[in-house]
Design goal:
By secondary structure, the protein is mainly α. The protein contains nine helices and two strands, in the order H-H-H-H-H-E-E-H-H-H-H.
């Protein structure tokens, strides 16, 4: 084929068209990748903002509930609280309070955890490090409640933890902020007295107070595990000690393993 000027021009034009197309496709691919990364970053920032907003709403009540429970567990184990105000107390009102507020402290904590879990349920927060750290701490406390390799006083399995939280929740009817909150102590006592079905959810925990009061420290090892895990949660949520001063969050020593009896 003879290369005429016209053919040379045509071939050059075709080559330029191919090169232009390649550059255009490459530029388009880069643009799509850039848009994808931009959208991914935006979703991650939105998720982080959502997680922080939810945590901001529930941080204070969750820290308060965790502190109430860890404080009661600490006083039981380190200050002989039940020995003084339940076993040795002769005033029935004081005895009832020592038992029932201990049960309430457990129920209140479980309720705020469940409320927070429900708020975060439909949020895409799985790859956020802070959310992962929070879930890890909540799961550790959940496990401390349900583990079956230690004496079973105050043992609450996961399904029952959530059921207790469900019956403890009350609607706030708020347009903004938390839609549910934990029932107050006065309402809790009234419902315990008036509603046998409600009271039945707490019957085992109430009976466990007697077991805890009579047990040796080794028998109450679950309380130590719970208290230590609750302090870890408080340190995470309130790392600057703004809500609970450091002197009021003393972690109990690591519990000594309970020796097992040799099998015959």
């Amino acid at each position: 084929m003879e290369l005429t000027p016209e053919l040379i021009v045509a071939l050059a034009a075709a080559l330029l068209s191919v090169i232009s197309g390649l550059f255009s496709a490459r530029a388009s691919t880069k643009a799509r990748v850039f848009e994808y990364e931009l959208e991914r970053q935006r979703k991650k920032e939105d998720a982080a903002e959502t997680a922080e907003r939810i945590l901001h709403q529930y941080r204070e009540p969750l820290v308060d509930a965790a502190n109430t429970l860890q404080g009661r567990l600490y006083n039981i184990m380190e200050k002989n609280f039940l020995g003084k105000f339940y076993t040795a107390e002769t005033n029935q009102t004081q005895r009832d309070y020592a038992r029932d507020y201990t049960v309430y402290a457990i129920a209140e904590y479980l309720t705020w955890v469940e409320i927070l879990r429900r708020e975060m349920r439909f949020q895409d927060l799985g790859d956020l490090k802070r959310n992962q750290d929070l879930m890890e701490r909540l799961t550790s406390i959940q496990y401390a409640f349900q583990r079956d390799d230690i004496p079973d006083q105050f043992q609450v399995f996961r399904g029952r933890q959530r059921a207790i939280a469900e019956v403890m929740m009350v609607a706030t009817n708020a347009a903004e902020g938390p839609r549910s909150e934990a029932m107050g102590y006065a309402s809790f006592i009234k419902k315990m007295n008036d509603d046998p079905e409600f009271a039945d959810w707490f019957a085992q925990l109430r009976a466990d107070v007697d077991t805890v009061a009579a047990a040796t420290p080794g028998g109450n090892v679950r309380l130590v595990h719970l208290q230590r895990e609750l302090i870890d949660l408080m340190d995470f949520l309130d790392d600057k000690n703004m809500r609970v001063p450091a002197q009021f969050r003393k972690r109990m020593p690591e519990p000594v393993a309970i020796p097992t009896q040799p099998t015959a």
